[in-house]
Amino acid sequence: MEKTTRRQAMTVAALGAATAVAGPAAAQTKAQAHGGMQDPRSKHPKPPFPAQSQPWPGLASRMNPRPDHGETSYVGSGRLSGRKALITGGDSGMGRAAAIAFAREGADVAINYLPAEEPDAHEVVALIRAEGRKAVALPGDLRDAAFCRGLVANAVRELGGLDILVSNAGRQQSRSSIAEVSDEDFDATMKTNIYAPFWIIKAAQPHLQPGSVIIATTSEQAYDPSPDLYDYAQTKAATMNFVKSLAKQFGPKGIRVNGVAPGPVWTPLQISGGASEGKVVTFGATAPLGRPGQPAELAGIFVRLAEDDGSYTTGNIYGAGGGQGQP
Amino acid sequence: MMTKDHERLSVDLRRGAQASHLPPPDPGMSSDQARMLASLQSLRGSDFDKAYLRQQVLAHAQAFAVEKSFADAGEDAKLRKAAQSALPVIEEHAKTAQQLATELGAQP
pLDDT per residue over B43-85, tens digit each? Predict the structure, then answer.
């Protein structure tokens, strides 16, 4: 009986407030769980989007339209009660959607983000606390090994442990040719997307008890890269690959490792250089569903991979591509 | 109209690039454009028409945004001029595409 209720709660439909602006947590009404069905084509905004750009890393709160991270729609049912999660890139995008969902499912959550993203992070912290959960804000630049090690130590100390690690922070900058990828560009992408996950996972592993999970954000770019994302795309392929090697390494330790591979998702990554100016306008148009995904549409995947119920899924990649791409 | 106007815009752009001693633009489509073309190839009849028009509305919105951004802030004066003169043409095409799309019920 309990299982059925949980599954019903899983099929949450947004209350037609999918494009609602997310205000401070205190001003929101509690979302109501119900089943039902919506047309996925019109459930969220379609292109063309207004031309827009922000300096890296960009804020979700300044995007037009604002991304939907599930603020008014995600309903939890105790699927992650008592869990302790660290999420990198937890201020916006899929990391934010995961942070909100995890808190609503009963977990305490620490988020890492760049200091410039403080306004977004502030909202996420408030949303976590509104659920009566512990929120820990750990800003800082992941491109530094010492910072990454300190990040894990601080998260473990503040949360009183750690059993969910979401390695999601990423740097994506569109460059139409390799000739335009500077040494600094390449280094920044590698440090953020490959080195930081290495440092963080290595630091976290001794703290992860059997039953713990690691979830890494990869991308459809890992399987079919865009020509203007030469450096970013290869890091997503690397991520997809390390999910599988670490799943083999950690399986005997009882720690599961999985990946999430989105198609085009409407996040600050795209409007701060991740997509070219023109591409922002038509972002997601190539997807058979005719629009980009919203972060809220991936929250359930992160919860699925973190919860105990998914105990045989490890070394796997879950996609959400709107009909295009792999996996 | 589309073929004539787009040919003229391409010629203008090439001339502008030559005058500023810049390499001509690469021919060929972006991977997004290739994907959109591929999705048209499996369609017939009014499905094709609607998809084509939806794509044209999007493509022109994109072209307008890119040209405007360059017209406002592009580094090269001759290419800025080419972009500025392209804007009204693109806007006209965008309006026509939008009109046709609405008439055919192509915008859900």
Answer: 999 999 999 999 999 999 999 999 999 899 888 888 888 889 9
**Residue A29 falls inside a structural domain:** no
**Longest CA–CA separation in chain A, Å:** 60
**Distance to chain A for B69, nearest Cα, Å:** 8
Mean pLDDT for each 10-residue chunk of chain A (327 residues)? 45 41 46 82 96 96 98 97 98 98 98 98 98 98 98 98 98 96 98 98 98 98 96 98 98 98 98 93 96 98 98 98 95
CB A222 within 8 A of CB A243: no
How close B78 gets to chain A, by Cα (Å)?
Answer: 21
β-strand pairing of A135-137 with A108-112: parallel
**A103 bridge partner residues:** none
Strands (E), chain A: 84-88, 108-112, 135-137, 164-167, 213-217, 256-262, 317-320
Q: What is the pTM of this model?
A: 0.89
Q: Please indicate, yes or no, if residue A30 is contained in any of the structural domains.
A: no
Q: Would the CB atoms of B62 and A48 count as touching at under 8 Å?
A: yes
Residue A94: is it exposed, middle or buried by C-beta count within 10 angstroms (0-12/13-18/19+)? buried
For residue A270, give the CATH number of its domain.
3.40.50.720
A325 inside domain = no
Q: What tokens were used for A55?
A: 């300096």
